[in-house]
Amino acid sequence: MASVSRDANGTKRVLFTDGDGERHSVRLGKVSTKAAESFRLRVEALLATKGLRQSPEPELAAWVRELPDRMHERLARVGLVEPRGAAVAVTLDELLTRFNAAASVKASTKAAYRQTTESLRAHLGETTPVASITPADADTWRKAIGEPVTVKAEDGTERTKRLALATIAKRVHVARAIFKRAVRWGLIASNPFAELRAGSQSNPDRAFYVDAESIRAILEACPDAEWRAIVALSRFAGLRCPSEIVALRWGDVNWERGRLTVRSPKTAGHEGHAVRVVPIAPELRPILQDLFDHAEPGSEAVVPRLRDARMNLRTTFGKIIARAGVKPWPRLFHNMRASCATDWVERFPNHVVANWLGHSPLIAATHYLQTRDAHFELATGGAGVLVRGEAENGDEKSGANCGALEAQNAAQQPSATVRDERAESPETPCFVGVLQHTASDRERTAKLQSGRGGIRTPEGVKPADLQSAPIGHSGTRPMGRMLGR
């Protein structure tokens, strides 16, 4: 603790005891009591910072920098601050190196940071003192990363490339965080990137809905059960690939209740988000069961192939898509997860879908949910009931409603794990998608629920009640084996 002392001649001084028990004083001269008390509080703050071996808060650091040389020298004499003559200007390279060392993030996130730090080094200069970087320099850097650049391919051809707006926004966010840390460390008085506009990190140009027809063709083109599981877990369970699929174990599969326990390395650092539980969709169950039936005795990993770090997952999946005769979409695995999210949100409350996906409803709306042609058809009255591909005459994908019908995939069928209770009563209109059924619609729905036009569930297996059943784990035997199949 520090105190203010008044001398006989009217001058004041601040008295304090350092961490070693030695008493010191700092002369203030003839100042007001209010000014002396303010100085005392800052001395106590400097003592606390020194005792905890921390950098001063930005406001305190700014106060120290603005002190007159004589007063700064008095504080340096008693060991509260470093002498100004000994201060060394911190360069941009030193700041970026220190930021990377202090960042407690995963290797993939550090790789994303590296794109920003290398860009800052290239445009601002490694040896540039951090204190000399101005908001005008930040604006120049922001403009530079948005300009098109010419890149040369392996065959010697040149093409023009421009960063996506979402990539630019990400780099601006990282740059702001770096210089915000510099302010907190007391290296600079203010953040020159603070007012730099970032924009949205979502990229609607790369959004794509992977429909059921494409997925069926891709599943048929998969070379083995493991690849079918990779595709199905991404598209029908919304798992991140490869991080969440590689961590999946057979002990995480609850066959009886139709649930998967998913461990997420990406959200493990957020309290309560390291593990989540997702439903096993009817489309996914037979694929998982087939994989379990052919698994090596004693194996724990659901997809052992992904444990090989040398595997080029994206390249192989691209070949499978080409073999299926499907045009590849921009983000192969992310778009399948986003398509699963789009299906779910049309059937379940937002908070339920967010819990299954492992992020907030806001993140889902920004990066995952998509507007499809079927939505426009329904809004304009051009579509009937969203039932999978069967018109009034019983033909597949015929009539005026084909656009909406084709867009509705198997993940949106009432035969899935969760079903509206009204569908069980023949007297109550069944609710599928967003429209009510007529009597003829109910007849077609009954056919779908019995397996026609949809994906059958194992014989004797009742859909799990995901809304009420308690969470549990059972990775022993799948339902098919328990039934003697």
Note down, in words, how this protein is organized:
The structure is a single chain. This protein has 485 residues and is mostly helical. The chain folds into four domains: 2-86, no CATH class; 92-201, Tyrosine recombinase, N-terminal domain (DNA polymerase, domain 1); 208-360, hpI Integrase, Chain A; 375-449, no CATH class. 41% of the residues lie in helices and 9% in strands. The chain is built from 19 helices and ten strands. It has helices spanning 33-51, 58-65, 69-77, 92-102, 107-124, 135-146, 165-184, 212-221, 225-236, 243-246, 285-293, 313-323, 332-345, 350-357, 361-367, 373-379, 402-407, 439-449, 479-482; strands spanning 2-6, 12-17, 23-29, 149-152, 158-161, 253-254, 259-263, 275-279, 431-432, 435-436. The chain has a three-stranded antiparallel sheet, with helices on one face. A three-stranded antiparallel sheet has the order 6-7-8. Strands 4-5 form a two-stranded antiparallel ribbon. A hairpin with a 5-residue loop joins strand 2 and strand 3 (23-29). Helix 5 (107-124) crosses helix 7. The radius of gyration is 31 Å and the shape is elongated.
